[in-house]
Amino acid sequence: MPDRATLSRIAPFAAYILFIAIADILSRLGMSEMDLRWLYPLKIGVVIGMLWFWRREYTEMAWPPTLGTRDWLIAIGVGIAVFIAWINLGADWMVVGKSTGYQPVGPDGQLDWLLVAVRLAGAALVVPVMEELFWRSYLMRWLVDTDFLRVNPASVGIKAIAIASMLFAIEHSLWLAGLVAGIAYSLLYVRSRSIWSPIVAHGVTNGALGLWVIVGGHWGYW
Q: Is the predicted pLDDT of residue 206 greater than 80, yes or no?
């Protein structure tokens, strides 16, 4: 049975992946994108609830973050760079599977701005926290020592970074973009020794991507 420190980092991520699997199953059973559009708000709500329930376990997320101005600027810059890479690494050989993305429209075919807001907030504010707690705070350090809370991020080696980044890439249909992002966020974590650094970068990437999707109608990226 996992201890609370482990469970609190795995469970929100596992719930998120479970909802993706449920959506895929329901789609295969004939449910339309219109029928499934409210599944995302439910998914994000469950993840928020779990993160809040275990909030005291995330000792590395003490507020305010111990980041200097330079760290903030580097994290933001990396987030923007990953966004640029993400929208330019979409050649056929860089993609696994096919995603129609998430189209937050109502029955009239017009954008449902409540769904748009929830999707953007979920991607920019919730997903980065959930994923960085799992991929960087937990998995990357666990690959060094199963008692991962003892591991100083600065002592994480290339092997752990490579494994965690490759698995992070597999999670995404744009696998090469995912690999680039995984490596970038991991190096930020090692450099800053603060989970807030990759969280900020991840949030900037997802926020910029979300705005790009909304303005340009690039729904396949959602």
A: yes
Q: What is the 3-state secondary structure (H, E, C) of 85-96?
A: HHHHCCCHHHEC
Q: How is 47-109 classified by DSSP, letter by letter? A: HHHHHHHTGGG-GGG-SS----HHHHHHHHHHHHHHHHHHHH--SGGGB-S-------B-TTS
For 101-132, b/e burial (b = at least 16 CB within 10 A) is ebbbbeeeeeebeebbebbbebbbebbbbbbb
Tell me how long the chain is: 222
Average pLDDT over every residue of 101-112: 84
What domain range is 170 assigned to? 4-221
pLDDT surpassing 90 at residue 10: yes
Assigned token pair, 191: 């450099």
pLDDT at residue 98 greater than cutoff 80: no
Instruction: Tell me how many domains the chain contains.
Output: 1
- Is residue 106's pLDDT more than 90? no
